[in-house]
Specification:
alpha+beta, 7-stranded mixed β-sheet, 4-stranded parallel β-sheet, 20 strands
């Protein structure tokens, strides 16, 4: 799936996407439409202005183009990963280095897996998987608020999913999680949980999810885990029983002291928690990428040759850094990106070509992986009257192996940061190679 046949319709589609990302400035946010989307509920009457004032680079003013063949290649990598994750040998291997709580399995799969890709010269390459990938609902709203300035571009503005159905798809996903653990019926109360939630950068998305849940008949609270109580029977907030927790914490094993009530309720099955420690251990621990690119292990587990080939070409080779086997990695450091095994949001990650001796000593002393560097592709934009080139990551929001939504993140610097003028979340559109290319 990673090959590129010159002259094929797929090749033409890829070239068109590159041309549009380089030269097209026609798509942009319709500010009035975005405000209407964000403030459908009267209680959210100031959400748009709050975002613009406090998070000016949350949304990019432009869209990103990706070819249908690259979308299909990303989906094939995701299917290949899912097929391996289902194998007993894989689970035994990765759960052995995960926390004990990850061995608990109440049934739910975990909402909003984020499969993040760089669109390299040899096709999309999976750089990491996240289990509490934020931004799905914000990106849904953003994609519905785009403006095209000409008919040619309007013809291209066809997303990979039906945006009108996405919010219901998201709600149905949470309901499926409930039924996987409880068997039937419907929850009454759902809590969106994060540390000091109102101070989180993606807090506006919590507000949108609260609106979505309440629109479907659920009571919803946004709460700090320190305000939850587990009484041995139920998880409670201000005396009210919590049925489902939408978990946005980055304490993936629930080890911090003020997460104790949530941890105990989850361990005893008193609450439906999603995503949960098991999902993180199966998917998002960076050590797992070293397993998914290990040809010997894959063959030992009986993974077929076609799936092995997709994984080997679709994931940059990743190596677990061991205390007594790292000399060669320092010598070849410019070829690698170094990531902490339980990292998120590119925290404590290092580019090999920028690596100092001090940082290297921290890497060797800690738990890190070395991943072959895949430079991100770029989107050229006009920002403040001048043309700039921004890097882009492509995120696939996935549940139960199915891609629900594609989005991009535009940025400057080493990692996605939401601090770049012109950058932020950007909707993804699929150009049709049969469209007029004179744009």
């Amino acid at each position: 799936m990673s090959g590129r046949e010159s002259g094929s319709p797929g090749d033409q589609s890829e070239e068109l996407a590159r041309v549009l990302n380089r030269d097209c400035h026609c798509l942009s946010i319709d500010a009035d439409a975005l405000q209407r989307e964000l403030e459908q509920d009267p209680q959210n009457s100031d959400l748009y202005h709050s975002i613009i004032e406090s998070r000016p680079y949350l949304f990019s003013a432009s869209a990103v183009f990706v070819s249908r063949p690259d979308v299909e290649r990303m989906a094939s990598v995701i299917r290949a990963v899912e097929s391996v994750v289902a194998l007993p040998g894989y689970r035994e291997t990765v759960l052995a280095w995960g926390p004990a709580i990850a061995r608990i399995d109440h049934g739910p799969r975990g909402v909003f897996l984020g499969f993040d890709f760089h669109l390299g010269t040899e096709g999309p390459r999976l750089i990491e998987i996240n289990t509490n990938a934020g931004g799905a609902l914000l990106n849904t709203v953003l994609a519905r608020a785009q403006r095209a300035c000409c008919d040619q571009v309007r013809q291209l503005a066809t997303g990979p999913v039906d945006l009108r159905l996405l919010e219901q798809v998201f709600y149905d996903m949470f309901l499926a999680e409930w039924r996987l653990q409880r068997g039937g019926g419907q929850p009454r109360v759902i809590a969106i949980v994060d540390d000091d939630p109102s101070q989180q950068y993606l807090y506006p998305e919590f507000v949108l999810f609260r609106q979505l849940f309440m629109r479907n008949g659920l009571r919803c609270v946004i709460v700090d885990p320190g305000n939850l109580i587990y009484d041995g029977t139920a998880l409670r907030h201000e005396g009210e029983t919590i049925d489902v927790v939408y978990n946005r914490l980055t304490d993936f094993a629930l080890e911090q002291p003020h997460h104790a009530a949530l941890r105990a309720a989850y361990a005893e099955g008193a609450v439906v928690l999603t995503p949960h420690p098991r999902a993180h251990a199966l998917y998002a621990d960076k050590r797992n990428l070293s397993v998914l690119t290990d040809a010997h292990l894959l063959e030992t587990w009986g993974v077929d040759e076609a799936t092995q080939r997709i994984l080997q070409t679709g994931i940059p080779h990743t190596t677990l850094i061991e205390p007594d086997r790292h000399t060669g990695l320092w010598t070849d450091r410019r070829k690698f990106f170094f990531k902490p095994v339980a990292g998120y949001g590119s925290k404590a990650a290092y580019r090999g070509d920028k690596l100092t001796k001090r940082a290297w000593s921290e890497i060797v002393a800690g738990q890190f992986v070395a991943q072959e560097t895949v430079p991100p592709s770029e989107r050229r934009l006009r920002v403040g009257g001048e043309e700039v080139s921004l890097k882009l990551d492509m995120r696939n929001y996935v549940y139960n192996g199915a891609v629900q939504l594609l989005s991009a993140r535009l940025y400057r610097g080493q990692t996605t940061n939401f601090r770049t003028p012109g950058g932020g979340f950007a909707p993804v559109f699929l150009p049709d190679a049969s469209c007029d290319r004179r744009l």
